[in-house]
Specification:
Belongs to the homoserine dehydrogenase family. Helix content is about 35%, strand content about 25%. The chain has helices at about 10-25, 25-30, 65, 85-95, 105-120, 140-145, 160-170, 175-185, 195, 200-215, 235-240, 305-325, 360-370, 400-410, and strands at about 5-10, 35-40, 60, 75, 100, 125, 150-155, 225, 245-255, 260-270, 285-290, 295-300, 345-355, 375-385, 390-395, 400, 415-425. Helix 1 crosses helix 12 (about 305-325) and helix 4 runs parallel beside helix 5.
Length: about 425
């Protein structure tokens, strides 16, 4: 008997899912052990030309009825957002349907509810497409590394921001100019807020932290979030001067004592020899550090209709195989309960650019402020500019709260004209 699929949404990703199911029908049947059929597609409006070549009778605006229909085995959700997606998926699960979703926002906000319902119903919930598109990342974290202790997950999980910063680095362009290019090429939305302010990456970071550290305590609201709108051409130039590149990073870390996790999203300087430094354009890459497996990197297309649909179909095959084997695989029932520690407790390094008065004793006064806050200076560079000078300092690792206090104290000094820029610096082995 064929496995019947209900599809929620038929936009860019949904249309690609339909196309792949049609084009690869024989291969899918061979991989699963049974044919795959689309039983219905829920859309907001009927009558639009969707280019799918499907029977118009398959389309419906009654998503609630579709997901609970007796002949439906699997619900694929690609509409996004919190509601009605959450209610529809919970209804489907309660009716005994397995679920495949690409909905990072829902999983980051209320993933625990979805997984609890699936466990109780004995069905699958898969969501490889929710983070990093076609890159096989979530299943390795959940399954392949389940017997290891992951210490850190650090990656570029938003192609739009990576494209913008890559253009700024390669061409010397400003943020606004690079954003316009990203929009013209279709990498950025007309309203790019979710990308450039870090909301998209924060949702993905929450999902990564949940899987990597087996804790349900992490939601998107727990993620320290900073966008890239404040990154300037001067920041890019400073990074180049110290052999670094600015990248939009999502970082999930286990504390040294293993008692808490830190989850953050922000631009940071990376040494150019770091594997993530070479990731250009709109590509994604995630770097995983585990105690036994060591360092692993996952790289590929992180967005787009076809890559995302590829991840959806991978999950569809997994669900189909489990269905034939009369089993299900979900998040482990064990919850480590690891809390999220505040950003101030995270150990990192700062790159600071200060405009100061060019007179004797200024550097000593600046160094004194660092010492007062328990922060050590790793290196310093000074350039004269007439009566003023520019000081560029990089700190040794210190708690973020101490570094932040240092910056605030520097802003108050008479000798400091302005704190021109503040950016974190990341590297291999930087922990909490």
């Amino acid at each position: 008997m064929a496995m019947k699929v209900a599809l929620l949404g038929c936009g860019v990703v949904g249309a690609e899912v339909v196309r792949l199911i049609d084009e690869q029908s024989e291969e899918l049947a061979a991989r699963i052990g049974t044919p795959v059929e689309i039983g219905g597609i829920a859309v907001r409006r009927l009558g639009r030309s969707r280019g799918t070549g499907l029977d118009p009778e398959l389309f419906t605006t009654d998503a609630a009825s579709l997901v609970t229909r007796d002949d439906i085995d699997l619900v694929v959700e690609v509409i996004g957002g919190i509601e009605p997606a959450r209610s529809l998926l919970l209804s489907a699960i309660k009716a005994g349907k397995s679920v495949v979703t690409a909905n990072k926002a829902l999983l980051a906000e209320d993933g625990a509810t979805i997984h609890d319902a699936a466990r109780e119903a004995g069905v699958d919930v898969f969501y490889e497409a929710a983070v990093a598109g076609a890159i096989p990342l979530l299943r390795p974290l959940r399954d392949s590394l389940a017997g290891d202790r992951v210490r850190r997950v650090m990656g570029i999980v938003n192609g739009t921001t990576n494209f913008i910063l890559d253009r700024m680095d390669a061409q010397g362009a400003g943020f606004a100019e690079s954003l316009e290019e990203a929009q013209a090429l279709g990498y950025a939305e007309a309203d790019p807020t979710a990308d450039v302010e870090g909301f998209d990456a924060a949702a993905k970071a929450a999902i990564l932290a949940r899987l990597a550290f087996h804790t349900r305590q992490v939601t998107a609201a727990d993620v320290h979030r900073e966008g890239i709108t404040g990154v300037t051409a001067a920041d890019i130039a400073s990074a180049k001067a110290m052999g670094c590149v600015v990248k939009p990073l999502a970082i999930c870390q286990l504390s040294e004592d293993g008692a808490s996790v830190g989850v953050r999203v922000h631009p940071a300087m990376l040494p150019r020899e770091h594997p993530l430094a070479t990731v250009g354009g709109a590509y994604n890459a995630v770097f995983v550090e585990a105690e036994s497996a060591g360092r692993l990197m996952f790289y590929g297309a992180g967005a787009g209709g076809a890559p995302t649909a590829s991840a959806v179909l991978g999950d569809l095959v997994a669900v189909g195989r489990n269905r034939l084997a009369a089993t299900s695989v979900g998040e482990g029932a064990h919850d480590t309960g690891l809390p999220v520690h505040p950003m101030g407790a995270t150990v990192t390094r700062y790159h600071l650019s200060l405009d100061v008065a060019d007179r004797p004793g200024v550097l000593a006064r600046v160094a004194e402020v660092f010492a007062e806050n328990g922060v050590s200076i790793m290196n310093v560079r000074q350039e004269g500019r007439g009566d003023d000078a520019q000081l560029v300092l990089v700190s040794h690792p210190a708690p973020d709260a101490a570094l932040d206090a240092t910056v605030e104290r520097l802003r108050a000094l008479d000798e400091v004209r302005s704190v021109a820029s503040v950016m974190r610096v990341e590297a291999l082995g930087t922990g909490i």
